[in-house]
Specification:
Blueprint (H helix, E strand, L loop, with lengths): L3 H8 L7 E4 L10 E4 L7 E4 L12 E7 L9 H11 E12 L9 H6 L6 H4 L12 H10 L2 E9 L9 E8 L7 E2 L2 E5 L5 E5 L6 E2 L11
């Protein structure tokens, strides 16, 4: 679930021209067109699988995805490739996701603030909804691999009362590369002892045929 601070940051990119808010649920960001897979999403004007958008190439000036990318069950490479397809050259993609590096940076005192849980968004009931994990580095690599220049990449301290940073990565489209590389599958073990398989960029890649879509937005 997003915070007010994250929504304000993402809304700043929803200006000028036409744009999409992927996985919008009930959140309207600027003048963007809300896209969600759920017909119950109050801010959605387009109901569809956001890994297969019903739009032509080079149509939009910006796309924002606030806590959406981690919910796709297919490789993030395919999802970002699709978003790149519908963006105009020079268009902006802004993505906000959980930070899979942050747990390793916490002090013992900070862990106490989270009731001993290093992965609050996983152990509070979201574990089965997050299918992919990202670090600051792998998110930047993903953007560059899919034809973007990274123009902003940082951690967002989203809650003043406890340590729970997320990642913001913003890229400007240079070209649509049309490739179909998969991430190797890796396994994450969270602070609560749960283990989950996710897809994350790193090491060698393997060519594959694009699978049928099976996604969940926020």
């Amino acid at each position: 679930m997003s915070t007010k601070k994250e929504r304000e940051i993402m809304a700043a990119y929803c200006v000028g021209g036409n744009g999409l808010n992927i996985g919008c649920k009930d959140t309207q960001l600027g003048d963007s067109i809300g896209v969600d897979i759920s017909a119950g999403a109050k801010a959605a004007r387009v109901i569809c699988d956001a890994s297969r958008l019903p739009f032509p190439e080079n149509k939009f000036d910006y796309i924002v995805a606030l806590h959406s990318l981690e919910h796709f069950r297919i490789s993030a490479r395919f999802v970002v490739d699709e978003w790149c397809r519908v963006l105009k050259v020079g268009g902006v993609l802004a993505v906000n996701v959980p930070d899979c590096d942050y747990a390793t940076l916490l002090t013992a005192e900070e862990v106490k603030l989270l009731d001993g849980r290093r992965w609050p968004w996983i152990s509070n009931g979201h574990r089965d909804q997050h299918w992919q994990g990202f670090t600051k580095t792998t998110l930047e690599i993903l953007f560059r691999a899919e034809g973007f220049d990274v123009i902003r990449s940082e951690r967002i301290d989203r809650r003043p009362d406890r340590p729970e940073p997320t990642l913001l990565c913003v890229g400007r489209k240079v070209e649509w590369k049309r490739d179909s590389l998969l991430y190797p599958v890796v396994q994450f073990t969270y602070g609560n002892g749960n283990t989950q398989t996710g897809q994350q960029l790193g090491g060698a890649t393997a060519a594959a045929t694009k699978p049928s879509a099976d996604t969940e937005t926020r």
